[in-house]
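Review box. Two proteins, two foldings.
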Amino acid sequence: MALDDGANYDLAIICYGQNDALDGFSTNYEAVIWAIERKYPDCSIIFILESSQRDYTEKMTIIQSLCNHYEIPIADTIAAFHNSDISYDELTNDQVHPNDAGQEIYFETVKACIDAQVKRATGKMKQVEAVNADVSKFDHFSWYSVEKDFERLSDTTFLLNTEVVGVLGIDYTYESGDNHADIYVDGELYESPTVTFDYDFSQRHIMVVSEECTVKQNIAVVFDTKEQADGFQGMCFSW
């Protein structure tokens, strides 16, 4: 919804699920479908079942069910890995992410899916009712950039003056170890999310802080350290 590069895409290939929580997965996944359809109505969609799941987990069956509902084609790399006659370890670098041989299987699987849809002149999603009624909470989207919209009051504190209601997400880079921020709405402490990132590298995430946040005047974010604050990218609200 935030993408604004002037392109009119013919095809969106979505690979989602490996690192995403099961709670709310169906609604969040369906929101991706609706966002693409609204912004790029002529865009075809292909969804990937990720090989890293190894099997048809609950998240993968949710994807299959949604794709059946909307008649969206699936590139099944789980089956492709199983049918390759090559061991899983030989297709990945770390038992999760595909290596060159694994990426070749991804390429051939997606290519076969594209070729089949082109041949049949299909691939557009079916216009049907939503599966999840609460998917409408993502119908609208506002993005507030740390560079353009927030005022940095100190090394660790940012302030945004606005009035908005909706699902609140905070976009920042997780550093190795505990990541903590205090979020103040209209001068009152609202949430104090803490995330433990058990890796030896940093990684950017959008964390959903609240399903319904009401801001009447301003919202502030206070990080524990300057390093964490330097990784702050902004906030988004959906409604």
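Next protein.
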Amino acid sequence: MNLNYLEETIRTSKYLVCLAGMEFMREQNVAYHRDSDESYRIEEKYGYSPEELFSARMFNTHAELFYEYYKNEILSKHLEAGKGNEALAKLEEAGYLKTIITKGIYNMPQKAGCKNVINIYGNIYENNACPRCGKIFPIEYIKNNDKVPLCDVCKSTVIHPGVYLHGEMLSNTVISHAVEEVAKADTILVLGMNLNSSLCKDMLPHFTGKDLIVIHKEAHYLDEKATAAYHEAVSEILPKVMGSILEK
């Protein structure tokens, strides 16, 4: 696979933005709840689908079951950043990469050292807050609580995790920030998803730059809309390209 075009595009870009998708997360062994096997396992165990469990309705009406699922299936994961995110961190440090936009909630790019990351769906580490008084709690407070984590100020108020739940409104501030970054970009890398993914459909209408490059293991009919498409794992391609760029 000839990576010269990708390498040259990254090197000459004035404002490079990455959209990081679910397939990129799967490369770091993150199970996606919409995968058929994972979805079946969860429904068998809890009696509800992952979408029902990870929802504002479940949080508001069955907090014990919500937090049983959240702590067992979400907070219990021990994930490494992975080679792809480490490559992104080095590209950012070298001044090539400006922003990463993702719906991931595990702070994988941040674990690798990336600084400019927009988490559309929030993340599990920050903004675990009391809906009443606004006090913020660390993730350890939730993990170490045997029952439903309650605010230690308000006493009876259930702490809301710092992530988007199905049925909630996304933060206008976060969305606006992401749109602004996409609008400034002259190059966008779409990593681990196709152009029909929800993140691409939300963000790319605001892109007026020159180069749109897809890195995704599976070919897709919308690849023809991209400047270039590479059908290989992100964690295989990016380290090669990053190494070549930084050597020159």
